[in-house]
Amino acid sequence: MTRIIGIGSPFGDDAAGLEAARRLAATPPPGAEVIAVDRPGATLIDLFEGADAVILIDAAHSGARAGTIHDMDLHVLASHTLELISSHDLGVAEAVQLAARLGRLPARGRVLGIAIASHAATQRTGLSTSVRAVIRGVVRRARRWNQIFTAVPLARR
Amino acid sequence: MPSNKAKTKTIHVGMLTRVEGEGALHLTVEGGKVVDLRFEIFEPPRFFEALLRGRHAREAPDITARICGICPVAYQMSALHALEALFHVAIDPAVRALRRLYYCGEWIESHALHIHMLAAPDFLGCESVITLAEKDRPAVERGLRIKKAGDNIIKLLGGRPVHPVGACIGGFTRVPSGAAELAVLHDELARIRADALACVRWVAGFDLPDRHLDIEFVSLRHGNEYPMNEGRVVSSRGLDCAPAEFDDCFEEHQVPHSNALHAKVKGRGPYFLGPLARVNLNFDQLGPEIAGVVRESGVSFPNSNPYTSIVARALEILYAVDEALRIIDAYEPPATPAVEFTPRAGIGRAITEAPRGMLYQAYETDDRGLIRSARIVPPTSQNQAQIEADLRELAPAILSRSQAEATHLCETAIRNYDPCISCATHFLRLDIVQR
Question: CA distances (Å), A63 to each of A12, A68, A118, B59, B263, in order?
């Protein structure tokens, strides 16, 4: 089972991951469970339990133009830090890195980061035009990755 | 190495790490003397007090729960107790017990997070919990198990672990139907009891600095139980007042470098809130079994060493696990999840013990129950002046250290208070200027 986790907060473009999860949950991809979580901190590690694969969707301060989609392997994130937004305890990248050290990272996964402007998380309610415009693309990518994870099971060890 | 006497040294930690929120520390030492020390909270104000104005009292617990992702229960509890005092609501004893269980959940998850993810790396030579997990994976796994049990208590009573919604004026929106619904939680708590005990032994074995400060400790104290939702305000220097007399005993003031108000005991000065204050002032209420654990640990209470806060925090986890088990064992559902109330015009005030210390709230409502004014005084804002006093005392000892070491020592001292800057309004960058 693939677990698709939209992460964010209600504020401005930080809600991008939540909005993507909302659209995916309306028509859940086959074989996938979709959840939306508000700044999960360390509890993100618990959300990996029981999943063969995870797809994380979150807003990112990457320095790229707002609306740029970063699509990276979960295990790459576990060893390389992209600054994802979190205001409390562990950030998403730190939680993924900690899960990897504890052997609790699913075998496969993707991180879909949506670049937002540096202060876009707090300056407005609702998504900016540039971020809203790419949510459909993010949703499409999440569905595509789920298809790949579902169609090509991991070889049993 | 520069001479401490002749030079001025400035330490500026521009962004404090492993604290909840965004803040900085600026320290200037001239001729070996601290001439400027500012613990800066630059997280913008969030205007919750203004947001509450004009809303119905019924909305206060759900709005205040949004102040913090780590300690939302505390915000709900102080709001509810203040409003219930105002509306003369007498809650069912079973609801009172469930609220205590709810608070146990928050202490467990908040303390477990702080000990394992934020503070322990300081004392074990690790940069972060990620490096700690490489060095001592079982300890981090244990911390996550403890935290999860706390989260599950909050989830059961509040509907979800972050920003829960279940508490309301008069009780809860729903309560467990009986012991069977609590059985899974009981089993989980019984399982992690050994983890909680191991956690106390683990932190008590850390090489904690031995630095004693001249501190006034303040907490609630209750005649029959370790304080959570009720009690009088007491201090290690003889203060004893009702929560409603908060403004008679304490005063808040603005400082230019912080977006959160500082506080002091009227006529005196800074004061220290949180687990160490609670354990110091209520040690007798922890019970003989925990007293035995403390004796065996080699750390004694009361004491004035802020670094023993981590031990106090671990003891409170153990206490909260035991207390939660006692409450579940004795649970009988209340006649109704929440008693009815009639709004009235007036002012209600309450203090409860958030994980980080006393949280005061006061509400004025009109006769329809609409909020005319709200006041929220979080523990971290009250602790700011004490944190500065602590760092002022620490400063001379760090001047000969490298910038990296000095920063680490300041951050460790600050983390003793587990500051939640998001609540106080976020946390650390360090500037040390030495001239």
Answer: 17, 10, 8, 39, 39
CA distance B266 to chain A (A): 33
**Which residue from A114, A17, A4 is spatially nearest to A69, judged by alpha carbons?**
A114
Across the interface, whether the CB atoms of B147 and A97 are under 8 A apart is answered: no
The answer to whether the Cβ–Cβ distance between A98 and B140 falls below 8 Å is yes
pLDDT computed for residue B427 by the predictor: 32
- Chain A residues touching B113 at Cβ < 8 A: 41-42, 89
B162 interaction partners in chain A (CB closer than 8 Å): 37-40, 43
Taking only the tens place, the pLDDT of each residue in B127-147 is 888 899 999 999 999 999 999
Strand partners, B48: none
Task: Tell me which of B10-19, B230-239, B358-367 is least confident.
Answer: B10-19
CA angle B425, B431, B433 (to 5 degrees): 140
pLDDT tens string A96-135: 999 999 999 999 999 999 998 876 555 567 899 999 999 9
Length of chain A: 157
In B, minimum Cα distance to A100 occurs at B130
Identify all chain B residues contacting A43, using CB atoms and an 8 Å cutoff. Answer: 147-148, 151, 161-162
| B42 token code pair | 């630059």
CB contact under 8 Å between B162 and A38, yes or no, is yes
Alpha carbon distance A155, B107 (integer Å): 43
Q: CB count, 10 Å around CB of B135?
A: 13
Reading the block at residue A141, the tokens are 């990518």
Instruction: From B418, B427, B399, select the one nearest B10 (Cα to Cα).
Output: B399
Q: Do B144 and A39 touch (CB under 8 A)?
A: no
Q: Which of A9, A102, A118 should one mutate to test binding to chain B, selecting the residue with the greatest count of B CBs within 10 A? A: A102
Q: Of the candidates B230, B212, B229, which has an alpha carbon nearest to the alpha carbon of residue B280?
A: B212
Q: What is the C-alpha separation between B79 and B99, in angstroms, rounded?
A: 13
Residue A78's beta-bridge partner residues?
none
Tokens of B48: 């919750």
The top-level CATH class assigned to A2-151 is alpha beta
For residue B161, the chain A residues in CB contact (below 8 A) are 43
Check A89 against B113: CB less than 8 A apart: yes
Judge contact between B365 and B344, C-beta under 8 A: yes
pLDDT tens for each residue of A34-52: 999 988 888 899 999 999 9
Sequence ranges of the domains in chain A: 2-151
Work out the average pLDDT over B142-160.
Answer: 95
The CA-to-CA distance between both ends of chain A, in Å, stands at 18
Average pLDDT over residues A55-59: 95
Q: Does A83 touch chain B (CB under 8 A)?
A: no
Q: A69-73 and B262-265: which strand pairing? A: unpaired
Domain B58-209+329-345: CATH class, spelled out? mainly alpha
Question: What local confidence, expressed as pLDDT, does residue B19 receive?
Answer: 56
Length of chain B: 435
The ipTM assigned to this model is 0.81
Nearest-neighbour CA in chain B from A49: distance (Å): 13
